[in-house]
Task: structure prediction
Amino acid sequence: MPRHNKIEKSKDLKGSSKKILLSLKPWITPIVISIILSFISAYISLISPNKLSSLTDYITDGLKPNVSEEVITSIMTDPNISDSDKYSLMSLQIDENILSKLDELPTPIYNKIKPVMDMDAIKTTSLVLLIYFTVSALASYIEQLILAKVTNNYGKTLRNNIISKTDKLPLRYFDNHENGDLLSRITNDVDTLSQNLNQGFSSLITLSVLFIGSIIMMFYNNFYMAITGILASLIGFMFMGVILSKSQKYFVERQERLGNLNGYIEEMYSAHNVITTYNAKEMVNKEFDKINNRLYRSSKYSQFLSGIMQPMMGFIGNLGYVSICIVGAILCIKGKITFGVIVAFMVYVRMFTSSLSQLAQIATAVQSTVAAGERVFEFLDEEEMPKEEVTSHLDISKVKGSVEFNHVKFGYNPGKTIIKDFTAKIKPGYKVAIVGPTGAGKTTLVNLLMKFYNIDSGSILIDGVDTKDLSRENIHELFTMVLQDTWLFDGTIKENIIFNRTGITDDEVWEKCKLVGIDHFIKTLPNGIDALVNENDTISSGQKQLITIARGMIKETPFLILDEATSNVDTRTEELVQKAMDKLTKGKTSFIIAHRLSTIKNADLILVMKNGNIVEQGNHDELLKKNGFYAELYNSQFEN
Amino acid sequence: MIKLFKNLNKKDLLIVLACILIMLFQVWIELRLPEYMSEITRLIETNKDNISEIMMQGVYMLLCAFLSMISAIIIGYFASSLSASFSLNLRERVFKKVNDLSNKEMKEFKTSSLITRTTNDVTQIEMLIAMGLQALIKAPIMAFFAVSKILGKSIELSSIVGAGVLILLINIIFIMISVLPKFKVVQKLTDGVNNIARENLMGIRVIRAFNASKFEGKRFNKVNTELTNTHISITKTFARMSPIMNMVMHSLTLFIYFVGSFLIVEAKMVDKIEIFSNMVVFTSYGMQVIMSFLMLTMIFMILPRANVSAKRINEVLDSEIAIKDGFKNKGYEKGTIEFRDVSFKYPDAEGYLLKNISFKVNKGETVAFIGSTGSGKSTLINLVPRFYDATEGIVLVDGVDVKDYKVASLNNIIGYVPQKAFMFTGTVKSNVKFGSKVKDEDILKSLKVAQAEFVSKLDNGINSHIARGGTNVSGGQKQRLSIARAIAKNPEIYIFDDTFSALDYKTDLRLRKALKKYTKDATTLIVAQRIGTIMNADKIVVLDKGECVGIGTHKELLNTCEVYKEIAYSQLSKEELENA
Result:
């Protein structure tokens, strides 16, 4: 099941962060460039309010009439201004409407006292600001383009690494780990990692610059106002912190209940037929309602609590804002600061509160990123199969086909021996059957022969060569193996039969299909051998098994292993397949593990296994005469 | 999407209405903030000794901010309860609908897809409501109020704000058009990556045995690269968003100041201060207008994904169920089954899986079906509990066409045991009882008949825990519990779909003997692969490539039916067959 934005804590924050950072090394150049770019745009956001504040000052300077004593004297002493004009200025009464009266003054005087705005300064400042903004936007755009490539390719590399890692791990690893867990590492964890890096990386840098910068700028502009702004915001944050810490449990609860619900749904959908035929819908629906309602409650509260954040942030912002305005007003009236400083502060306080709150959000994102990375690297750092010391090579065309087991001892887990002391000699061209009750170690034997696992002691020889000295690939080359689980990948029947062989024609594929007797069935499919194989398709498990057998037949090798390969196939088809196989394997050594004893009656050698040892061996007639364990197994099918 | 929202009930709509009203208040009060701001600005500018007045204004402003926060929290509460209850109901509807689906639809949708539709897709829509509802209501209200505040104050400044909005909108629309179709592709490719990864893990032995790691690696790399490239192209398009947004927002203030300075220069002295405070107001209201449009874009970010989810959910809810309920509760006879000229093919396939099958089963008879893989034996008995309906011909149970039964009534007559035993999380008891009202002693009896004595050896007997998927019991044990489930139901007709193959010969034999004794009157249909399992059946139906090639007893068929003979000899020798 996918994990839904679960807030996961990492086990080793420092170590795992380091691993993640180190794994980014191949992209160091673009990352450094994007860091520089985000620094540039953050720096511009930081300094532009000051420029904006000086722009404001230029404008406010041009608001008030120029009525200093100096100007008045110059008007009075100006010989070019008529006495009546001078009189109109002198007779002005200072009251509410003073400004409109000033407007009506005669032009010569008006021109002297009218406010003067430094338009050149305004133009240059505006131009500088426009350049700032453009540069900042370009820098952050380029930065994001770079990061888009880097983080997505990073995710791709991780996914590919995980897949190729699965190839290097001993099978033992997969025995002890669930597939679902691995899958969620490939998809969810890698996604979390690459997306959070994409969004978080630049914001982390930008926000840090803004956060520290806004503090510096505030103090640089005015000490008292800086203290006011920071204090007001921090009080708000503390309040928010209290609420957040209390809401944590709802998030955890929601996650759990969502998991429960998903589990229940999965279970019930898979058992759809049973539910229908047993008229159990009502019961199932009732149980579902219960689980669904439980989720509703925790989901409502967790949603609400996370929704509270935004308005609270808004209030904190306003609190800082108002405090700044009031303190600023006092200082402004006292003439300690200009109005422009207040304007600048308004921006810095917003910058401070929003960067702080976003940093807090990123902190949780960092936690889950590191946790995801930890899970990915935990898998990538898993111990691989020991390197093989390959000293020999068997040429597939020259192999005769003898196999020898010498006192083989093996257990999947240390201390739990499954194969205790296995010795057998198989001559070239033999058809060997391995029978015995479940858990006797039949499949294990094959696993060892294929070198899927390394044996604990003893030796296995192929054509007299110890498998220890052969590479796994070399051994696999010699064997055709068809397993009980019918593994088909998502593709056409043809693709599945050809698999990784090359140069196989359609005719050959049809021929193999005919050999295993599924040609009739395939012809009924809409696209014949190009029909898609899907888990829920019309192809039954028996037919799937026949396809895997056909796949095995495409590969021509001196050895053949059928591990319950026909357990899903009816006996008549099995016989057909057997005959076809026999033709193919004439003179080749084959190992057959079978549940049904009818399949193996004509084997040259039957190995009867019980508890990891061979208790009897011989051919069918010999073993029946012995009237031992084999005979008992065999006869139970006729009791009536 | 709209279709889904039609299911909101009156209470939900009332909540939405309340949200709108509170939102109106909240926006109104929020927009008062710039007014206080400009008042404070004016007070500072007029340079009077009026700190106490500034303080007053500040307190008012804070009060407004506080009220705005409180209303936002209330709205948040409404929105979250609305979204949670919406998803509660939607999930329930989807779940129940899926339970009603027939095998045909189950196969078309695929179980894994139905699971994501019930879980992830519903969550997506829940998210949209939780986050989107507020934005959707707030944005237009805010835009309306803010526009009305600045409207008529200054054409020059208004047009700057308008230009800003226009640039943003064009940008967003452009991004959406180029990104929207890619979301679907991403979903598909993600599934592909998942699929191949899963295949790799499942088939690890086969892959290694065939030295096919490189082949698989290439296959994986192909989808992986496709996925990555699509991701990159989406991220790149989105990368335009925030720089342009920032640029517009910053430039807005700049241009208002710049244009404003020219206006001030040209204005009369009496108007100058008013124009200036207008400027300040414009910067903040202009910002509000832009913010409200940004909020809408946020919805557009979630909307495409949620819309895809809504479509997927609607597909399930609207799917027509192939198996239609009939009206009859009871048949005319008891324990009989008849196939009249029945043919079957899957709707999308060409070839018939069953052709012209006819036979009749009388009460208390045991009828076995045998044939090669793909001969159609499972398909045949699947027609009895109506997993599928016959393409041609009719299937009668107790003398009534199965299509005329109420599905529930038909199921009451039948005890079906599938090839693959399903165990549910719970106890042995809950698994055997499953849906029916059975007494404990009957459960014990059924377990005994089903040869499931192992239960008594478990720590808690029939109350022992069964893990999900029955992973804590063996395959054979699961199969026996699944058989006990059918026995506990005490049906008229038993259907065993290849149930016995998982049992060893000894258990198979004992079970069938016990069952025969326990269910003397019951009719039994058995699909089997082993001759031994069916030798004693009253009737054996031999199928080959979808056609019935022989009906009769074991002895009869050995003499008359070539296919049967082949099957029998493939399992047992001549002497063995004769001795049996």
In short: Residues 1-7 of chain A have pLDDT under 50 and may be disordered. Residues 13-61+119-380 of chain A form a domain with the ABC transporter transmembrane region fold fold (CATH 1.20.1560.10). Chain A touches chain B through 163 residues (CB under 8 Å).
